[in-house]
């Protein structure tokens, strides 16, 4: 009996891979290296007030943000809420996944020894625990549960020109949507409405069958675990029905406007929107080089019959191109997929062409196939010295790509054809997130040669190392089943990648160092592949990283630039605040700005949301802080150039939408699509602000957006601080002190409801210069306090200030002082600031310092109630303390911040703000054209070609 490839694969290997320790310490489990705390996760729909989720007492590391722990708890913990089987700790979640992967790796002969398997387990655990990378959502949903072990988020289906195949398409899509994933397919095999049936009648055409599929997706859209149905429909540019396809969604947009003006509820999720068709799919046109050259030359282009391939109609190529651009300008559809470029980088052409993509356009491979994804958090590899640790990144990629390949050994698939193709070609999609934050922290503009050189070098390194490890795995467990038939084509594509790597023009020491490691990886990987073949037919894509981006506490998703310079942040114990991105002070220090200038710039950004005219910031540095939206938003071609820089180093494509301003023209849309082809992209989509009507508008929407004329002139509200004067009779403390032999008196008065509000200092005889200066200083500080300047701000500024007199004091709590100012504000901190705040500033009483020597902790033992297990509840601690200085807000994804970090300008938020998109609306006074989350009512923000909700983690895409 002949042995099949899958049977050979399950045999123990003669040798396996050796797993090197990168992040872990021998003899220490990763869980024992972190501090765990208990949290309560409660989510509500802010519009209705309804509690949509509640689980109390969940366990997470103390450095995980509230948002990350909330989203993981609501989306990824398995088991019925309230039952004993419900997961309640991140340890349980990670163990469920990692132990399944490790067991499968051992069962299928991946590891040389059991020790290597244990190192693999610990390394994978450490990286997930510390948010270095994340698998795509289906892994967290399904792996290690009684449910089918589906690990893939991306699917491509196939449909032929038969009724059975078309009806099966509906069925297969429905099953995929039910599982919370998305699918794409190409309808170009279906005969056009201009061709005859064998019975003599006229065919319906693919657009008519799209109606049925769209209705099916709309019906099943709530069945997924975290998202609405996501789908991609592709049609070749030479299909006779191409013009009808191109105009389909634009005409529906006209219908939406007419119905809205007639009084119907046409908001997304509105009761009347279901009457509109084709809204559940992204549409893309597959253009060929032949068509694009006809556009260049202004010649005719032939539309071909599906059955015979003969030209049945000729159209003016430029006219059709204009219609594509016009439709995209009107409603953002269709996008473009560049067919010849896609198939020129195809590793398995002997097994079939690449005809379609997943809904977000990053996965492109054979029909009836799938891809599982994982993304690395790039900011985790930025060292405190400001360099990118290429060696550590390479070793981490090796580990992740190994785990991804192991998952195919035990994975389940929604249909048999998809399972067969995936097991035969083993498509993987490793990628990254936080590129925008990495570039900003490195002092590089997103739209700059330096930014593109670093992005290209990192992407080349990631894919080069992935294929190198794939070749090594092929030597252990064999190449993918389809390799022998496609060996020459696969090798050709590997040489194309390597040649593209050699063509990178590095500009700075950082990208030069990364590029050097990438060059070595490609050389060694291709040499090993020539001998062993490769385990995987594809390795890398750039996905939207929506929900998993929150899990990793990333500032930016996928390849995207930063969304905005100020962010919405949830707090432990409830509440929220506005913070300025933690990467901004890091970038400013890299440019050499002083701490005072950094603080002033950060404060300006907190107020205005941009850097233009920020005090002390040189204009040549503005570009580093350009974002996706708002003032100084990145120009459309800046997005295209970044995509072009990294595309040659990806097996698949890039999920990204090029943002265009509302005033962009149809010609500019056509230019972006044309330049995408010239730049060698595989796919491209645009979105022009306010081009779609069927979006919910926030309460701050302009009259122009709502389609109604303005009745009155807009009222501008200017916000200013209000002075809160102390009452005539107020509590006060009088303190006598001696600093370096100089005597003085301090009178501090507070509000009746607590809080310092007035300060007087007396150091010399009335009428002397020193007495006058002290009086003036006291008045200035008092007025500042009454206008709302936090006391901790003064404490931060004036402690450690050095001048004479200085030295010994007569205060047992402050034995030495660097100056009178140093003493005064240390004493005020001890008298008026809560323990947690002043402890963070290093200010303690004599009793607390003694306690620290005896017990190792400054904290009073009886100040908070202990839990049943004897540990203190971090949520209780956080709720009892006021908002700390902004420098204490977690830098969720950055490396440890340097000492004396600048305040992040954290301020409380208005009640109507629930996301970064709404925050930017409040700051800049213009509405962001994004949909509302159907789960919690929060305005979503773009993530690749999808949208993601910062409130609950729901996405509009498939990954």
Automatic annotation (TrEMBL):
Residues 849-869, 884-903 are annotated as: Disordered. Residues 891-903 have a biased composition (Low complexity). It catalyses: a 2'-deoxyribonucleoside 5'-diphosphate + [thioredoxin]-disulfide + H2O = a ribonucleoside 5'-diphosphate + [thioredoxin]-dithiol. Residues 152-687 form the Ribonucleotide reductase large subunit C-terminal domain. InterPro entries: RdRp_reductase_class-2, RNR_2_N, RNR_lg_C, RNR_NrdJ/NrdZ, TSCPD_dom. Residues 41-131 form the Ribonucleotide reductase class II vitamin B12-dependent N-terminal domain. Residues 860-869 have a biased composition (Acidic residues). One of its GO terms (molecular function) is ribonucleoside-diphosphate reductase activity, thioredoxin disulfide as acceptor. Residues 727-831 form the TSCPD domain. Keywords: Cobalamin, Cobalt, Disulfide bond, DNA synthesis, Nucleotide-binding, Oxidoreductase. It is an enzyme of class 1 (oxidoreductase). PANTHER family: RIBONUCLEOSIDE-DIPHOSPHATE REDUCTASE, VITAMIN B12-DEPENDENT RIBONUCLEOTIDE REDUCTASE. Belongs to the ribonucleoside diphosphate reductase class-2 family. Catalyzes the reduction of ribonucleotides to deoxyribonucleotides. May function to provide a pool of deoxyribonucleotide precursors for DNA repair during oxygen limitation and/or for immediate growth after restoration of oxygen. This is Vitamin B12-dependent ribonucleotide reductase. It comes from Aquipuribacter nitratireducens.
